[in-house]
Each structure stands twice: as structure tokens, then as C-alpha cells.
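Can't attach files on this board, so I'm pasting raw text. These are the components:
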Amino acid sequence: MARAGARWPIEEELLVAQRIQRSLVQLPRVELDGWEIASDYHPAREIGGDFFDAFPTVGPDAAGQLCVVIADVSGKGISAALLMAFLRPLVRAAMDHTGDPVEALERTNRILVDERRTGMFVTMLCGVIDPAAGTVRIASAGHEPPLLVPGDGSAVREVPGGGPLIGLFGRLDLREEIVSLGPGDALVLYTDGLTDAAKANRERFGEERLRAVLEAHRGAAAEALVGAVVETITRFQGDAPAADDLALLVIRRVP
Amino acid sequence: MAMTIDVERLEGNPPLAVVSLDGELDASNYERVIEAVRAAYQDGARGLVLDLANLTFMASSGLFALHSAVRIMRGDTPPDPDAGWGALHEMAADHDSTASNVRLAGSQEAIARVLERTGMSRLFGLDATRDDAIAALQGA
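---
Top answer:
C-alpha cells for the assembled complex are below.
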């Protein structure tokens, strides 16, 4: 315990902030009948601002649905971690209130731009899994496009769509993309720390390698798919320090 | 680390800085870009060309640097990524306004795609070459 009135050294405060940030970034354990959700997060050396969340949606039309969120706050350090801690409950409340991923991101953006201008910004993707319909409704504010890994052997493909990131513009004007997931299909959400991971010689992991590892492990359970991607990246990076957070979330419909 | 920054001052109306980035812009070096732009502004530059023709890669931290450049050239203080709550202050800037005094020149396809996907391209004038950007700012 620090003495009353004594100041902690800044390094101590940074370590506390880092621990808080890493506890917030863990995905809560969620169950969705017939679906698998798995994730992993590897922080960079410094405090980052990636986060994800998963929670049941509320409302009369939303029974049995699950909302997933993945985001990457600009910059690094305590500011990014604080903004992440501010945004996580905000987007959840917006989702609870609206039940609509597009409107939830629009509302989150409005609060950040109109009421809490920070000069920082966030890429964020919000998806609502509807197990009855076999779909994921997606709204993306400048986030990396998700990858669909079909269980039937067809090519991994990017989910199109999306609009500007959160925090810069008054309106996002996003469009909802509805992705159908058949049995065995997986949807991969990630932050750019994954594709930007680099070896010591600065060669990047890139999207092609990501697609290749997903193709090679198609049909695997969500947990195994996450493990395969992270292991491949870790091997690729070798001893090179990670420059950015790496967050990965896989949604899979059980065959 | 894997990027060099070259700053050139051009007299005229307005006085310009051309900041050329060569290599890869990522979390390890984005603050150097912010510092270079800040120094150029303090040195009197009131228009900025970011020459990206030799920039081969840009991580999300690069977006932060580009946005900070817009704010510096508007006379705002960019947020300090390590300043804690102090950085999360109220801003009076209009986030929808186009920063006509900052132009991006020669963006390679991958970088142009990131700027488009995130909507950041709205904040800048976009030009094919450094000379086009200079002409657009100084009306030559």
C-alpha cells in the first residue's frame, strides 16, 4: 500500500492502467445454442485500446440473440485505454436501447462527437447473431472487414460494407450487412494488429496469410480456429516485439 | 524506425511545409510525424502537403498521426496519447469540416483504401502528385 498522501510513480500507475485495460478486454463467457464464440487478445508492449464484448440483446424481438462488438481505439497509452473503458458500456447501452447495430454505432458516435469530444477516434464493428434466422447483422464503422469462412469449401471472402470510423464526423450513415451463416460456416472479426504483425525484418503477416491459415483450418471449431491463427502469427513474428494489440473473435455455426 | 521523414519549407502564400514519408508508418513512429508537423506549424507553415508516394504501409496509428496533422494545421492541440485524462478535453473543432490546408499526395493503393474505408479521406484534399498538392494550396 502506498503511504497516505504519497504519489505513486508514473510507472506504477501505468501498470495499474494496463492491468485494468487487459481485464476489460477479456470477452465474457457467453453461450449461444448451436453456435460457438471464441476469442483471443494479445496486447502490445504498451497500453492499447482494442476491446471486444459479447452480450445478449434485450427487447421483445431480440430473444435468444447475441451482440458482439470489436473495436480499436486510435493511438495508445492511457488515453486510449480510458476511451476504451468509456466506450465499452456506452455501446452496450446503445445496443440495449435500440436493438439495432447501425443505430447503436450512430448513437455512440453522436455521444463521442457532440458530448465528449476527445480528438480521438475508434473503428468499431457491431454484429447481432440471430440463431433462429442463421444470420449476423453487421454494422461497421471503419473497422477491418470481417472474413467469412464457408464450411462447404468455397473461398474465404470479405464481408463488404462499412462507413467512417467513430469520433470524427457528425453522422456515419452506415448500412447494415446481413451475413447468412450455414452450418459449419465461420465469421472472423479482428483488429489490424493481426494483419500488421511483423517479423524483425518488417515483413507483415498480411491478409493473404490470414486467409491461407483460415482456408487450411476451415471446418475447425471456433476455439481451434482462433488457436491456429494466433499460433501462426506468433511463429511468423518470432522474437520481434508486437507493435500493436492483436484481437481476434470467431463466430461459428455448429454443423 | 522503418520510416524516414523529410521536411521541406516552401515560401509563398500560404507558406507551406512538404512532409515526405518514406517507408512504413506504424505505432513505433507515428509520433515522429506529429512532431514534424508541429515543428513545421511553429515555424510558420500554414499549409501542409503530406507526400505519401513512398509510404508503403500505414497502420491505424498512422490515421491518428494524419488526423493530428489536420488539427495542428487548424491551430488546435492534438491529443497527447500518453497524457491520460488531460488529453480527453472538450474540443471546439468542427469535425465535419474539410481541412483544406492539408493535402495528401501520391497515396499508394493500399493506403488510399484504408483512408476510404475509414472515411478519413474526407478530411484531406487528395492529389496525385506532390506538385499538384502544392499548386492546389498556393493556387499556382
